[in-house]
Design brief:
The chain has 389 residues and is of the alpha/beta class. It has helices spanning 15-21, 23-36, 43-56, 67-77, 95-102, 121-127, 147-157, 209-219, 240-250, 253-270, 299-308, 338-346, 358-373, 380-388, and strands at 60-64, 85-88, 106-109, 132-136, 160-164, 172-173, 176-177, 184-188, 202-206, 223-225, 228-229, 285-286, 292-295, 347-350. It has a 7-stranded mixed β-sheet with strand order 1-9-8-5-4-2-3, with helices on both faces. Helix 4 crosses helix 5 (95-102) and helix 10 (253-270) packs parallel to helix 13 (358-373).
Length: 389
Amino acid sequence: MLGKGAILSIPLVDLKAQYHTIKPEIDEAIQRVLVQANFVLGQEVALLEREFASYCGVNDAVAVSSGTEALRLALLACDVGPGDEVVTTPFTFIATAEAIVHTGATPVFADITPDSYNIDPKAIEAAITPRTRAIIPVHLYGFPADMEEICRVARKHHLKVIEDAAQAHGARYKDKRVGSIGDIGCFSFYPGKNLGAYGDAGIVVTNSADVADRIRILRDHGRREKYEHEHIGYNSRMDTIQAAVLRTKLAKLDSWNEKRRTLSRTYRKLLRNVDIQLPQEDDTSVPVYHLFVLRSPLRQSIRRTLAAADISTGIHYPIPLHLQGAFRHLGHQVGAFPNSERAANEVLSLPLFPEMTDSQVYQVATAVKEALASQPTLSLHTRRLLKAR
């Protein structure tokens, strides 16, 4: 058992620790904006757009106020609106489907594959109707979706592909950055993301000059020039301070992602032969482990044991979208998307952040094994393995 003297509080993510590692650079970046006194769509925003486009390997990036707005404006730039349908996953944060509804279109859900947690291309094809205009795959937990098959389906049916890469900054699929593979990529810079701002922010990336131009107009009240409004637009602009923070952090992103992968390998090593399902990697992609998620029907017991050891956990996500009250009008019942429902009942996110130490990972893994070792439902063989480690 863990001795009381060995127990240290471990958060799910530690933004304070991150700030202290880069404090001088962050403070200087914020001070630079304060001196310039250009707080909305200032010079730092334009520089971030250029640098993030280069990072993703695309021609254009348009900074906006949040990841949700990135998705909504991307859909609007593709002329998605009332009467249209957009296929997406029910196993994601609500913003993905919420953005569809905000355009007047209808989200149509397609189930995930049981191992990847990402949308199943075969389920996408089965969900397509004459009203379908786009597909939004989500690179959940920082693991790229099967973009080759998704794009094949999209081409076959003449659909747009809008990547929800909110959890996958820097992830690669077949040597391409996610966000650069479909027609448009959308990122959130919510503070807890792999690349996080100090408030809400987001960005859209694309190789289409027309799409980028339309989003730039829409994000700023439908105008190119002050007081000359070509369209009804939105107030979806990025704050300049957020851009300055993100530019500082972007230089660190690849090293932070590599640390996440290293910590994930440590988790795998410590939890091998344990009766849980861990994230599966393959040769087609390089994930960035926005979250390290285990899966077990004993989730609640594991979570209680970790909480007793002052270890934070999360559930991403406990209720799939088709069973949320907000989408009751779509008429889905329990059992409609079984893979998503089973995942929602079993996934548990463990602490993972670049500043995490090996000893913290060991502490978390030990608590997980202790939780499972105490369960009478486990096989004798598994209990012996757990106790022997």
